[in-house]
Amino acid sequence: MPQSSTVNRRIILNSRPIGAPTDENFYLEELAMPVLPAGQVLLRILFLSLDPYMRGRMSDAPSYAAPVAVGDVMVGGTVSRVEGSRHPDYQQGDLVLSNSGWQDYAFSDGTGLTKLDPNMARPSLSLGLLGMPGFTAYMGLLDIGRPTAGETVVVAAASGAVGSVVGQIAKIKGCRAIGIAGGAAKCRFVTEELGFDACLDHLSADVPRQLAMVCPKGIDIYFESVGGAIFDAVLPLLNVRARVPLCGLVATYNHTGLQQGPDRLGLLTRTLLTKRITMQGFIIFDDYGDRYGEFLDQMSIWLKEDKIKFREDIVDGLENAPQAFIGLLEGKNFGKLVIRVAND
Ligand SMILES: NC(=O)c1ccc[n+]([C@@H]2O[C@H](COP(=O)([O-])OP(=O)(O)OC[C@H]3O[C@@H](n4cnc5c(N)ncnc54)[C@H](OP(=O)(O)O)[C@@H]3O)[C@@H](O)[C@H]2O)c1
Questions:
Q1: What is the DSSP letter of 236?
Q2: How confident is the model at residue 292 (pLDDT cuts 50, 70, 90)?
Q3: What is the mean pLDDT of residues 257-281?
């Protein structure tokens, strides 16, 4: 069903997943549109970003952010048109970035809204390359990774929203960029379109052996987004004074606890010590929120100069958000995953 002006469809967290999320963890609710209160704007959501962090919000395990309550709308970044305004700073037709979640419409008192160019050619980029994922790639690589020309940078989830940008910035900085991605098509895209020097398919390659072959001088920066077996392959190849921006661990988000297996903590800590490696976790807006402007200026220039390419995976229809999100955690997306909630 498409967006209607009299009904607000919302995707609600029905229950907390145990392991991988399923359709049963969500339900779609339809509510009559209430009257716009004074001091508020009515946002008509055009694009909804789907991101791996949302798996964390579905869980009530301790984390850096509060969980979504069962019965509440799923959270998420959105690009919206202002459909009606009783707020002095906004008028009908404004285009805004907000965190309005998985629904057709939302009210806002202006808190957390960012105005976008109302005639922006591709507003969905504000959820990807020019938004949170691009910002994450930029700060994680440049501030924690500190790349210098000639160094080898390895990037996991290399065709995705964050990884695709990390490798391209590494190339701009004169580094060798090696990607790891799931499947031949993603790997071809990473080398042929994005310009990485090599890309290994973690679904078919013997990653430890092939990674050693494509990194003959070892690894200076490993941008960690995945965890698990890929980190195991990277660890012995890290050079003295290597940097590891710890951005995410998507391979573990559906795990219900620590995995069984040999204790590898000793190997990790010995490697960190003897090679004097810096491994630093970061949460993008908590740690770097005040540098968003710097990022946006630089990324807009690179985009205009055609130095950075992007790929979006746009799925039509709010009702398809749960399936698309479930697929994101299985590597089914190819590029930045966005739901087109409505046509502009
Ligand atoms: N720290 C922060 O502030 C911050 C901000 C944004 C994102 N992140 C993190 O950055 C990472 C990437 O996010 P993104 O938005 O760019 O997502 P994405 O790469 O566009 O999509 C997720 C990708 O992860 C890979 N993946 C999923 N399950 C996997 C598994 N079990 N094993 C190996 N790979 C798996 C898949 O790629 P392949 O098919 O290529 O394997 C999938 O396409 C996530 O860990 C996310 O949590 C962190």
A1: G
A2: very high
A3: 93
